[in-house]
Design goal:
Layout lengths: L5 H9 L4 E6 L13 E8 L2 H8 L8 E5 L12 E7 L8 H11 E12 L5 H18 L7 H7 L3 E8 L4 E7 L8 E2 L1
Parallel strand pairs: 1-2, 1-4, 2-3, 4-5, 6-8
Antiparallel strand pairs: 5-7, 6-7
């Protein structure tokens, strides 16, 4: 991540997280340092070992709580959060569309969903490499690295507000809205 500039991407994108923030699939808490503008942060992960590690990183951080929870069935009322964050999680969810629909459900209508994900690239040659190794990678790491992230986001009923793609198009930096109202998509 250091050599690919992922920490800079996290800082750049997650500084948009405002108000009450939900981080889905928080892992070990790599994003916790980037929530300076958030009022509160609720971080969830399905793996108890990840939750345990993430909890060690919240000491001294303002209003961050970590909970053990499955992303497919978020235990929060509708429209509970201003910002929803998921970084590098859509590759590992059994049903990423259902997870995004849960994110949409708990996001306030005026809120935003911030995603940093990896998936299919912008070039056939890189997609051939990803496709060729996808089964082994999924078996070894639980990561399906050749998913079409933009397609998944749209199928979940979210509106893509902006997209930036890096690393031959394999890294997606997306701001999405739970509001289906159509507007022009900004892409870089």
């Amino acid at each position: 991540e250091f050599f690919m500039g992922i920490n800079l991407v996290r800082w750049w994108h997650l500084r948009q997280a405002k108000g009450d923030v939900l981080e889905v699939g928080c892992g070990t808490g790599r994003n916790f340092d980037y929530y300076g503008s958030a009022k509160t942060v609720t971080a969830v992960d399905a793996a108890e070992s990840m939750v345990k590690e993430a909890r060690t990183k919240v000491a001294g951080k303002k209003a961050i709580t970590v909970q053990h929870m499955n992303a497919h069935t978020l235990q929060f009322p509708d429209e509970s959060f201003d910002t929803i964050v998921d970084t590098f999680g859509l590759c590992s969810y059994e049903d990423p569309i259902a997870v995004l629909q849960e994110m949409k459900r708990v996001c306030r209508p005026t809120g935003k969903i911030l995603l940093i994900e990896h998936g299919r690239g912008s070039y056939d040659w890189i997609n051939n490499v990803l496709d060729g190794g996808a089964c082994n990678h999924a078996h070894n790491w639980g990561c399906i690295w050749n998913r079409n992230i933009s397609d998944i986001v749209v199928k979940a009923g979210l509106r893509i507000v902006s997209t930036t793609r890096l690393h031959f198009g394999t890294t997606y930096v997306i701001e999405a809205s739970p509001n289906k109202q159509t507007t022009e998509i900004k892409s870089t």
